[in-house]
Amino acid sequence: MSKPRLISFKICPFAQRSVLLLKEKKVDFDLEFINPDEPPLWFTELSPTGKVPVLDVDGTAVFESAVIAEYLDETNPPSIHPADPLLRATNRAWVEYTSDIYMSIFKMIMAKEEAGLKSVQAELDDQLAGLDEVSSNTPFFNGDSFSMVDIAAAPIAVRLDIIKELTGFDALAEHENLQTWFANLLARDTVQASYVPDLKDILAARMKANGSAILG
Ligand SMILES: N[C@@H](CCC(=O)N[C@@H](CS)C(=O)NCC(=O)O)C(=O)O
After folding, report:
1. Mutate to test the pocket of ligand 1, among 10, 17, 52 (most ligand atoms within 8 A of CB)
2. What confidence tens digit (pLDDT) does each residue in 66-122 have?
3. Which residue's CA lies nearest to atom 15 of ligand 1?
4. How many C-beta atoms surround the C-beta of residue 100 within 10 A?
5. Cα of 1 to ligand 1 centre, how many Å?
6. Residue with CA nearest ligand 1 atom 2
């Protein structure tokens, strides 16, 4: 079997999850960036949905970040999931929950009007409150052990940190458990290695070109 190839997009949080798990599992892989808005022909032929991430395993396209994560976890033991099936199930549910948060973050940084911005910030705050409620001021979601929920949430921590730096808006201000958890995620070396060094500049340029209200 040859090295897996991850097809990514520099600013995609879902692709960042895949990179992070590959690094946690110490898998040797190739990383290829595309722009899914202007996809090369080979990508449209490989990907059933046209979305990144796609993990190309010997010509077979594994797609959907949660599915890629499960595949990598199964093929690279030991599993990052907890042993207890009920905890495993709720962890998977919280992975799904975090996926919706990315849409709110995207809508927030792309909102052009103040009213739209305020409404999406309220929506994001509700989602973060739900996650804060099930977190318990521990290093990671399940306590001391790094899990699939941490993989799924790390790109949120990275983006909210960048947004705070660029705009002063602190989405975590009212969510103390998340402050502890996300600070631990940001400090982890694999998390730091899971995104491109110029992510902040790319996001800043996109927000500026878009005329995003959050920039003030
Ligand atoms: N549910 C998918 C979402 C992936 C996704 O939305 N990817 C975006 C980039 S962040 C994309 O490729 N969009 C292009 C499109 O929708 O055509 C996953 O978890 O992998």
Report:
1. 52
2. 999 999 999 999 999 999 999 999 999 999 999 999 999 999 999 999 999 999 999
3. 51
4. 12
5. 27
6. 64
- The domain in which residue 93 lies consists of 85-215
- Nearest in space to 158 (alpha carbons), one of 145, 146, 172: 172
Residues with CB under 6 A from ligand 1: 9, 12, 14, 36, 50-53, 64-66
Atom 6 of ligand 1: nearest residue by CA position: 51
Ligand 1: which atom is nearest the Cα of residue 51?
12
Q: Are residues 140 and 101 in the same domain?
A: yes
Is pTM beyond 0.90? Reply is: yes
Domain boundary among the residues 75, 110, 135 is at: 75
**119 lies in some domain:** yes
Whether 101 and 51 map to the same domain: the answer is no
Give CA–CA dist 216/213, Å, rounded: 5
Q: Do 54 and 160 belong together in one domain?
A: no
Indicate the pLDDT class of residue 137, thresholds 50, 70 and 90.
confident
Of 75, 97, 121, the one marking the end of a domain is 75
Ligand 1 atom at minimum distance from 36 CA: 14
